[in-house]
Amino acid sequence: MTYSKRKAISATIVAVLISLLFLIPTVWILLTAFKTDAEALKGGVNFWPDKFTLENFRYLFAAENYEVDVVGWLKNTLVVSIVGTVLVVIIDSMAAYALARLNVPLKKTILSLIVASMLVPGVITLLPQFLNFANAGLLNTYAVMILPVTASTTGVFLLYQFLLSFPQAIEESAYLDGATKWQIFWYVVLPNVKPMVVTLAVTTFIGLYNDFLWPLVTINRNQLKTVTVGVANMMSGSLQVSYGRLMALSLLSSIPMVIVFIVAQKQLVKAITHTGIK
């Protein structure tokens, strides 16, 4: 066996072992969601349920169970994630195009501030943001969860760097054909940077969907809670000793992210490929 083959086999074994580290907890969550509480709390290694049951899911969707509002939590999370993602993509793409192509005054200063802001931990701005929204009377509203994420400096910088390598000859050809700056941006630039835009959208959606700290400190009404806060409350509340119901809730909350990744995976691969091409 040649050295290259041994190296490939070793790399494959390591990759499989690392994959199992992530796969085993996921399988445990999936199977535990279909177990009874007695079986879920039983000691030992018992991955496979003795008898599959849907009782945990029936409990979560029961009309009399006012404490666990799965549908409401998912709706709130999707509203915040989708609206926030759309705003980030629109604002960041326009800002990046303006910085990369237009004669913006103090462009270098703006870019320096964008890079500097990326170095500031988000927890530092948590209290000032909270006080601003509290003084504006926007706590316990959708606005308090959406407005702070209407733009992303990371997204602006990512798209700006990609646009710098985008050939200007294509834009100049469109300009000679009579296209305006807006038409060039909308019909020429955006379709060609679609993989990067999709990557920004997916990462933004996942970040908003998984956000926990900000909704926790700004929302205390059960009707407006996001799914991350709802799951955390149930972990320390009525589902603390009900592993089956808790895993069923965790499983339901992860479905939207899985769907988003499956739909966008082709564009993610294209973005990685384009990034590697010089």
Automatic annotation (TrEMBL):
Any single biological process term in GO: transmembrane transport
Membrane topology: Multi-pass membrane protein
Keywords from the UniProt entry: Cell membrane, Membrane, Transmembrane, Transmembrane helix, Transport
Domain ABC transmembrane type-1: 74-264
Keyword Ribonucleoprotein among record annotations: no
PROSITE patterns referenced in this protein's UniProt entry, alphabetically: ABC_TM1
Subcellular location as annotated: Cell membrane
GO cellular component terms, semicolon-separated: plasma membrane
Keyword presence, Transmembrane: yes
InterPro entries, per the entry: MetI-like, MetI-like_sf
Annotated transmembrane regions: 12-31, 78-98, 110-130, 142-163, 184-209, 243-264
Primary localisation category: membrane
Family affiliation: Belongs to the binding-protein-dependent transport system permease family.
PANTHER family tied to this protein: ABC TRANSPORTER PERMEASE PROTEIN MG189-RELATED, ABC TRANSPORTER PERMEASE PROTEIN MG189-RELATED-RELATED
Name of the protein in question: ABC transmembrane type-1 domain-containing protein
Organism of provenance: Enterococcus phoeniculicola ATCC BAA-412
